[in-house]
Amino acid sequence: MGYDLVIFDNDGVLVDSEPLANNVLAGYLTELGHPTTYEESVRDYMGASVRRVHELVLERSGQRLPADFDETLHARICAAFEQELKPVPGVEEVLGALTAHGIGYCLVSSSGHERIRVGHRVAGLDGWFEEEWIFSADDVGLGKPAPDLYLHAARQMGVEPARCVVVEDSPRGVRAAASAGMDVYGYTAMLPADELPGATGYFGDMMQLPLLLQLPV
């Protein structure tokens, strides 16, 4: 079917940030006395807001993270972004194809607005997204896997959920989009299809997306 709005997850879908962010998070948690591997960080926190980090550490250890944890984590991740962050290969071609065909798009992210903007500036994507096309978990009460963020984005963009399609790379994101009543394509660059259950379809190369959406590049 055709869609009126394409909603992109940000981290791992638009910018290749998941390896950087999860390495930083795993290292910081380990430094604080909560040993965490990169693989465990991906498993436990990919696609989630930083609130989940606090909740899971408290649940497992009975200890609260430092009051400045969020601020320090944000600073460390942004510093890593400044050094290494790149756009996901092919994403600018996809955005160009959507623009050429007059199809609206926006992004949703468990990250905060400042981190999103830093990432886009470094990766060279800032010219593709107006501020009103960017939606953060900070904008709603519940982040992924709750559907609230996706429903909020559709409402703000003036499109019915059934006319939206989502591009996600995390299990929590796929669940959130499906719960919102949207079709969702699982991008398998980080995780295989069997770890993204419930998606409408799967693809591993961003240049395949226009074909799934029946758009020539």
UniProtKB/TrEMBL annotation:
Coiled coil: none annotated. It holds the Pfam family Hydrolase. Belongs to the HAD-like hydrolase superfamily. CbbY/CbbZ/Gph/YieH family. Keywords: Hydrolase, Magnesium, Metal-binding. Its cofactor is Mg(2+). CDD domains: HAD_BPGM_like (cd07526). GO terms for molecular function: hydrolase activity. This is Hydrolase. It comes from Streptomyces virginiae. Gene3D superfamilies: HAD superfamily/HAD-like, Putative phosphatase, domain 2.
